[in-house]
Amino acid sequence: MNSSQIQTSVNIGVDVGKANLDIALHPSGQFYSIPNSEAHIRRFIKILKNYDIERIVVEATGRHEHALVQASNQAGLPIIVVNPISVRRYAQAICVFQTKVATDSRRSLPPIPRESCH
């Protein structure tokens, strides 16, 4: 990268499931869905190392996030594990709710403001 280029910091949100990880990159809007397996996670971490990552946020699921957290820590990536109830309450407080999109669509929708809020 030359000095005239500025690389934008990327924030990454991960929806953790038993079988898959749905990964959204902000502000680019890129979306990935990968199998939740150590081999796939390792390959994806290699891709993520090409980005200027500000943070990776993942909801605690009890155990399904462990492989991702461990691989991110080993790679020196900034990962934060958050309480899903806290995330939901925050979304309610700011009147923003994320619409779930079918995994096969491979894209996410922007947050939808709640009409009855404040």
Main beta-sheet annotation: 5 strands, mixed
The ordered H/E elements are EEEHEHEHEE
- Quickly give the structural class: alpha/beta
Amino-to-carboxy terminus distance? 46 Å
Q: How many helices in DSSP terms?
A: 3
Strand residue percentage: 25-35%
Radius of gyration: 15 Å
User: Which residues form runs of ≥5 with pLDDT under 50?
Assistant: 1-5, 100-110
Characterization of the model:
This protein is of the alpha/beta class and 118 residues long. Helix content is 25%, strand content 29%. The chain has a five-stranded mixed beta sheet. A two-stranded antiparallel ribbon has the order 6-7. The longest helix is centred in the middle third of the chain and has 11 residues, at 38-48. The chain is globular. The N and C termini lie far apart (46 Å). The model is unreliable at 1-5 and 100-110 (pLDDT under 50).
Which helices and strands, and how do they pair?
Layout (H helix, E strand, L loop, with lengths): L9 E7 L3 E7 L4 E5 L2 H11 L4 E7 L6 H9 L4 E4 L1 H10 L2 E2 L14 E2 L5
Parallel strand pairs: 1-4, 4-5
Antiparallel strand pairs: 1-2, 2-3, 6-7
Helix pairs in contact: 1-2
Quickly list its features.
118 residues; alpha/beta; 5-stranded mixed β-sheet; two-stranded antiparallel ribbon; globular
Short description:
With 118 residues, the protein is of the alpha/beta class. It has helices spanning 38-48, 66-74, 84-93, and strands at residues 10-16, 20-26, 31-35, 53-59, 79-82, 96-97, 112-113. It is globular, with a radius of gyration of 15 Å.
